[in-house]
Amino acid sequence: MIFEVLTIFPELIECYTKYGVIGKAIEKGLAKVKIYNLRDYTSDKHKKVDDYPYGGGAGMVMQIEPFYNALKEIKKDGKPRKVILLSPKGIMFTQETAKSFLTEGKGIVLICGRYEGIDERIKFFIEEEISIGDYVLSGGELPALVIIDSIIRLIPGALGDEISAKEDSFMKGFLDYPHYTRPEEFESMRVPEILLSGNHKEIAVWRKREALKATFQKRPELLKNLSPEDMKILKELCSEINKKIMEEAYEPVNH
Ligand code: 9D3
């Protein structure tokens, strides 16, 4: 999978891609991240990439020319690519988007803007406009890294054995179960006994229950198309939760 990033801050992209799962995947040759510094694609002698907005107003606008020149060079090899503009006006990026981009198998060009945005004529050179969520960031570099990270994790072989993709599919559609490590007891807080039992079957059951409970309590909108087995567990959980609520709400009364 090849990612090509157009930015005025190449170091921001470079830095993140050196470490962890992403760094390893690149070392293994599973992914490649090529960075294009927009300042190398200006014809202006001061390497200027922005200018004042036509019509006036605050802030600067990124000029189209550096993007055009960089894209022209990138596209020379004729390989299939999807050109994506990162923008707060874009369609929201999700895990499903990540999966579909990986499946398509095309190279991905990520265009990062800064300042108030890019000259609107960029629209003639892009296939998609993507946002990573409804909050205001300072530019497209973090969104580009979010997209690169989430896609590389999906490449077979990118995750080490210790972080298995198998586990991910076992709990698919649910929030994660709780994790514990040593020590067994910390400031009188104990690790749940079941996890110390060595009974792997029981542990799997407990984890499934906890995943279902966390999803039900924190993100109920994620629960859909539950299997009959999961439905049964959920009903049990509900009666347990209700029982606790009743016990806390009402003092026992002696008749
Ligand atoms: C005053 C209007 N602002 C729009 C909300 C202007 C503006 C703010 C921030 C224009 C660009 C930016 C920089 N953000 C991105 O380039 C960006 C982004 C984001 O801010 N949030 C979520 N996803 C993305 S993808 C690119």
Report what the structure shows.
This protein has 255 residues and is an alpha/beta fold. The protein has 2 domains: 2-152, 3-Layer(aba) Sandwich (Alpha/beta knot); 185-249, tRNA(m1g37)methyltransferase, domain 2 (Trp Operon Repressor, Chain A), CATH 1.10.1270. It has 8 helices and 9 strands. The strands form 3 sheets. It has a 5-stranded parallel beta sheet with strand order 2-1-6-5-7, sandwiched between helices. Helix 4 (95-104) packs across helix 5 (141-152) and helix 7 crosses helix 8. The longest helix is centred in the C-terminal third of the chain and has 22 residues, at 228-249. The relative contact order is 0.12. The model has no long low-confidence stretch (mean pLDDT 95). Bound molecules: ligand 9D3. Ligand 9D3 binds next to strand 5. Residues 86-88, 113, 116-117, 131-133, 135-140, 143 line the site of ligand 9D3.
CATH topology-level fold name of the largest domain: Alpha/beta knot
Integer-rounded radius of gyration: 25 Å
Largest sheet: 5 strands, parallel
Q: Please state the structural category.
A: alpha/beta
Task: Name the CATH class of the largest domain.
Answer: Alpha Beta
The count of helical stretches stands at 8
Distance between the termini: 72 Å
Helix content: 25-40%
**Mean of the pLDDT scores?**
95
- Name the CATH superfamily classification of the largest domain: SPOUT methyltransferase, trefoil knot domain
Count of domain modules: 2
- Write down how many β-strands occur, each being a DSSP E stretch of 2 or more residues: 9
Low-confidence stretches: none
Identify the overall geometry: elongated
CATH architecture of the largest domain: 3-Layer(aba) Sandwich
The small molecules bound here are:
ligand 9D3
